[in-house]
Design brief:
The protein is mostly helical. The protein has 2 domains: 149 residues, no CATH class; 52 residues. Helices cover 65% and strands 0% of the residues. Helix 1 runs parallel beside helix 6. The termini are far apart.
Length: 205
Amino acid sequence: MERNRLHLLVIYTAFLETYLKEITFFYTASQGHVNNTHDKTYPIKLTKVGEAYASPILKSSTVPDMLKYAAELFDINFGRNATEWVKIYKVRCAAAHNGGIATPKFLQDISGMPLSLNPREYENIGLTWDELRAAMRYADEIAALIDSKVSNYDIRILETEQILREQNGKGILPNKNKLWQFLHDEYSLFPIKRPDKNRLLSKFY
């Protein structure tokens, strides 16, 4: 069961990484950094300036580095949520790269970090349900803090258009009369204002 919990930690970290990349992309695009505004079949692309602006997150594969830049980019103090998440991230890295084995480097990295299932050198690393749930809470709080600061109507429009571009590129745009219900049912997207609906309908239909 301990290894299952480690696997869940790896998956949940991937969710946080994906969220950070997506919110950064759409936030940057919403600031006017869209390179292919009139395109209808290819995904939204950022301008060179936008790419440079967002690259510390979009081009990173290390969540602690992404969080550090996100704090600056969005002007958010993640506080204990980030501090504790970075600690547990070391456990995630061991699970993902060391096969869940407590190598000497891992033990050095977590020195002073209390783990309920405290492994010895080259033993399997364990994680309790409480530790896993705590890590998930920290990640949820990080995402909630960003959402409360960054998510806005412009981002919602861009998310909607991105889906329509993808559907159009694959030749599978839903029926025009059922579009908004489709977006709600399949993507949990909330309605947008009528002028923006009309603009998107005119563009894609």
